[in-house]
Amino acid sequence: MTGIIHFETFILTGVLLNLTPGNDTVFILTKSISQGKKAGIVSALGIATGSVVHTLLAAFGLSIIIAKSILVFNIIKFAGAAYLLYMGYKMLTDKSQLNSGRVSESKFVDFWKIYRGGILTNVLNPKVALFFIAFLPQFIDINVSTSVWPFLILGTTFIITGTIWCCILAIFAATIFSKLKDNQKAATYINRVCGLSLIGLSVKVALSTRK
After folding, report:
1. Residue 19: how many CB atoms within 10 A of its CB?
2. For residue 168, is it within any domain?
């Protein structure tokens, strides 16, 4: 494949990295458990869209600005942390989200908001940008490193495998939760755990460094 080396190794490594739990995994799980299968899948698609943004940034060299500028890195980092903190707080205080499985899968779920949240969660994580500019170049021929196509091909491949896994994860988590949909006490407890998970994730993002 033009400009790409060790493509099979890249796919294997990418799959293993996608299987490793991270910020995106926590976000998808909280949406799947609290708002149902469709919400989980939509959140996964939002995460994938965010990864498309990072792929384009890496391809055109814009991610280097994030890697080199402490100010830009911190602005993006704290914006992402604040957004996750807000979502976690909303889950802790909104008692309507987990009343029943019927509500979770109903038309009243704002899927656009969930999709947008997935995008922002991914895009506002500067560690993801650093990952793309550090990981993708390892599988690009140094003689064509100035071309954007190898970045786009590798990024697209990584996104496809990651999205498949995230959708499986969302369906699995939602299926497990559906067994508890008629238990209001369990539903409330799970909602609080999801909210606290997002708040904990916001703290993790806020404390992250470029190293």
Report:
1. 12
2. yes
Whether residue 187 lies inside any domain: the answer is yes
Indicate whether 110 belongs to any domain.
no
Tens-place pLDDT, residues 119-147: 988 888 877 877 887 788 788 877 765 57
Give φ, ψ of 161 to 5 degrees: -65, -40
Look at the pTM and tell me if it is higher than 0.85. no
Establish if 28 belongs to a structural domain. Answer: yes
Task: Name the domain count of the chain.
Answer: 1
3-class state of residue 4 by DSSP: strand
Q: Is 42 exposed, middle or buried (0-12, 13-18, 19+ CB in 10 A)?
A: buried
* Amino acid identity, position 64: I
Q: Rounded to whole angstroms, how far apart are CA atoms 108 and 91?
A: 16
**Domain containing residue 21:** 7-98+116-206
Rg from Cα positions in the chain: 18
Tokens of 210: 């470029």
Give pLDDT tens digits for 91-122. 677 655 444 444 444 446 789 989 998 998 88
